[in-house]
Every structure is written in structure tokens, then in C-alpha cells.
Amino acid sequence: MGSEVIVELQRNATNWANVVAEIVKIERKIFPKHESLARSFDEELRKKNSGLLYIEQNGEVAGYVMYSWPSSLCAFITKLA
């Protein structure tokens, strides 16, 4: 078994581009084109009310959850893989 870590992707992270690229690969493998955010993933994450948690396993992205919070009272999971 390797090491697993849950990480919140920060907007100013030095590894932003690498993490997003790995997530886009996962998107393309798992979801059909009409459900995939592969083309607009970076754009979606740059919205002020969205965030992303991902699990890193042995240095690679193994899964993620994208969320948004339309108000300070609630948040919604918008993508899970």
C-alpha cells in the first residue's frame, strides 16, 4: 500500500497546472463527452465560489471532488470521480 493524502487545490498552488492536467485525464477516461468538464475544467475552478479536493496516491491524482458554495449556508458537490 502506498501513501494517500487528501489535498485542497489552492488557486496559487505551484502544481495547479499539473493537478488540473491529471484531473482532465481522469475526466476523459470516466465521463462521456457530453458530461465531461475536460474542456472547461480550469475555467470552472477559477470561479470564486468553487473549490476542489483531490486524493494523491504515490504522487499521482487518484480521485477528486469539485464543489461550489452559492451561499455561506450551503455547498454542493458538482463533480466526483
Short summary of the structure?
By secondary structure, the chain is α+β, with helices and mostly antiparallel strands.
H/E series, N to C? EHHEEE
Structural class by sheet pairing and helices:
alpha+beta
- SS element count, helices: 2
Q: Termini, distance in Å?
A: 21 Å
InterPro entries: Acyl_CoA_acyltransferase (IPR016181)
Protein name: N-acetyltransferase domain-containing protein
Explained architecture:
This protein has 81 residues and is an alpha+beta fold. It has one domain. The protein has helices at 16-30, 41-45; strands spanning 4-8, 50-57, 60-71, 74-80. The chain has a four-stranded antiparallel sheet with strand order 1-2-3-4, with helices on one face. Strand 2 and strand 3 form a beta hairpin. The two termini are 21 Å apart. 9% of the residues are buried.
